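Hey, sorry to bother you again with one of my protein questions. I've been staring at a protein lately and its backbone has me curious. I owe you a coffee for this, so here goes:
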Amino acid sequence: IYHDAAAHILRRMEGLESATELVRTHVTAAAEYMRERRSHVATLGQIFANLRAPDGSPRYGMHTSEELFAGLERMYQMGQRSGEFREFDTRVMAVTHQAGVDDMFGYWMAHPELDVDAYAGSLADLFVAAVREERR
């Protein structure tokens, strides 16, 4: 499911030319994919939180997310290069971005009545507003 979700998100991002569109689509496509897979979201949450390596350490976490963080960083760096985004620490934004997406699903698990698509849209708006280059 995790790999299928990533493939879905990447397909939706293909061909987009602006970093703003990429940021928005990354968040909203994740919600779009998971919306019909609530039980899978719950299962993934349990696996990510509880699966252990042979030494007892967590199998998943910040230490296994480098590829994801690097991809998100590239997306934000693209926006800086194009002038869409202001200067900021792209690693901080990448980690914050992924934490926001992960927590969106955690909140949805606790509040099943949540309109996850509306939440994703608001979250994407928040990320874009945080990094947008203000034109004066």
